[in-house]
Design a protein that fits this description.
Low-confidence stretches: 308-312
Distance between the termini: 34 Å
Order of helices and strands: HEEEHEHEEEHHHEHEHHEEEE
Radius of gyration: 20 Å
Helix content: 25-40%
Number of strands: 13
Length: 312
């Protein structure tokens, strides 16, 4: 990077990259201009730090780029919005090989293109380790945002996406393996069902969140914001047969991965009743009087914390 310089890096990231119609003014000025048809803008930001969120001996730079986009698009989806653009902040040492930055940029742009959006601007800076920060923008299409605080007693809770796969993939990598490929891929490049966020919103979702920290931890955010208790039915939690197979082989518990593993970025939403739940979503819990999150009417008593926490 030292050979290229700041503006050389920016050119390398942005040159010859097409922008969608919603990008009214892309990279090259002090700020970008993105269309906001709804008149409101959904905004979220997420940071991936080398050694905390990713390791380049575990993941290729392109995979890290895709992972960064996935985390942000899941947050936009959890508000019931559709993405409209991304801003990228890249920090890295001067000694970072250009192919690493090329790979990061490729993964970010590919994931953005698949979502129908562009990287509209950003910043680059020198740092002691690689830090990728993405800000995602979204549009509500005339709907109200689906907040964490809207769950009501009697609602049912459903999930769309996989649970526990990223945690399983990380455990596989920790033990020096590279397969099962599906689990490892889920950790390296999670594929959140972000198109399902607006689907849930249109169906009348009362609250929604993505599983970035872990199912129980993220349900706890809804419970606290809505001042309710969410009771999980362990037998209804969708635990894939593949996940059970990997857990058995490694001497782990698949249900614990599904309940507490983060970075799957599945969408979890509350609905007024089961008739309102969209096709493909799986009901696994209900909303009751009280506070916190329980599993089969009891506080979580499984091994480990209910989800990821920084600074612990």
């Amino acid at each position: 990077m030292a050979d290229l310089g700041e503006f050389g890096v920016i050119d390398r990231i942005t040159a010859d990259r097409p922008q969608p119609e919603g990008t009214l003014l892309g990279p090259g000025d002090d700020a970008a201009v993105v269309a906001a048809p709804d008149g409101r803008v959904v905004a979220t930001v997420d940071t991936l730090v080398q050694g905390v969120h990713f390791r380049l001996d575990w993941s290729a730079p392109e995979q890290v780029g895709r992972k960064a986009v996935a985390a942000n698009l899941a947050d936009v989806a959890a508000m019931g919005a559709v993405p409209t653009g991304l801003l990228l902040s890249l920090a890295c040492p001067a000694s970072t090989p250009t192919e690493v930055v090329d790979g990061l940029a490729s993964g970010i742009w590919d994931a953005a293109s698949e979502a129908g959006i562009g990287v509209v601007g950003g910043d680059t800076v020198s740092a002691e380790q690689i830090v990728v920060t993405i800000t995602a923008l979204g549009d509500l299409q005339g709907r109200e945002p689906v907040r964490r605080s809207g769950a009501g007693v009697g609602d049912v809770v459903a999930v769309r996406g996989v649970l526990g796969w990223s945690a399983a993939g990380m455990e596989v990598l920790r033990r020096g393996f590279r397969s099962p490929v599906a689990m490892v891929a889920a950790h390296r490049t999670p594929r959140p069902p972000f198109t399902e966020g607006p689907v849930a919103a249109r169906a009348g979702a009362t609250a929604m969140v993505d599983t970035s920290d872990g199912l129980l931890a993220d349900l706890g955010h809804i419970a606290a914001a809505s001042r309710v208790r969410i009771d999980v039915r362990a037998d209804l939690v969708p635990v894939a047969a593949k996940l059970r197979d990997v857990a058995s082989a490694l001497g782990q518990d698949a249900l614990t991965w599904a309940l507490t593993g983060g970075e799957d970025h599945a969408l979890v939403a509350c609905f007024p009743d089961e008739d309102a739940v969209p096709e493909g979503w799986e009901v696994f819990a209900d909303v009751r009087l009280g506070s916190g999150v329980s599993v089969d009417a009891d506080r979580w008593g499984g091994a480990g914390d209910p989800g990821w926490r920084h600074w612990r």
